[in-house]
Specification:
about 120 residues
Length: about 120
């Protein structure tokens, strides 16, 4: 637990630095896209291996995992699209559709009739 808490804290500090330096360098949307994507990855790892013992429904946990994955892809796709539109890098025009498609694919995996997140 202590080791994971250390890495989570280190990640939070790193994300704050990426946002601060991205804002300072004039690329806040690019920095936000990176942070949004990697925050979803960290959140997924916490869902996969909870910090504390939990006895919850495995299907509910899997649905939460998929929703967080989709949210990471979609938020990174939207933020990178904004970055491309405001001129922070034309490479985002190629990357953001892939993020949005992957997010849509993740949402298609959900059992829409009985979602409990």
């Amino acid at each position: 637990m202590t080791f994971r808490a250390f890495w989570l804290t280190l990640f939070a500090i790193g994300a704050a630095f990426v946002l601060a330096f991205g804002w300072q360098d004039g690329v806040p949307w690019t920095a936000s896209a990176f942070v949004a994507f990697f925050v979803s990855r960290v959140w997924r790892s916490v869902i996969k291996r909870p910090l504390f013992a939990s006895f919850e429904d495995p299907l509910r946990r899997a649905n939460r995992f998929i929703v967080v994955t989709a949210g990471g892809y979609i938020s990174a796709g939207v933020l990178s699209s904004i970055a491309a539109v405001v001129g922070e890098g034309q490479e985002w025009l190629y990357v953001s559709p892939c993020f949005l498609i992957m997010g849509a694919v993740q949402l298609a995996l959900l059992p829409w009739g009985r979602i409990r997140v």
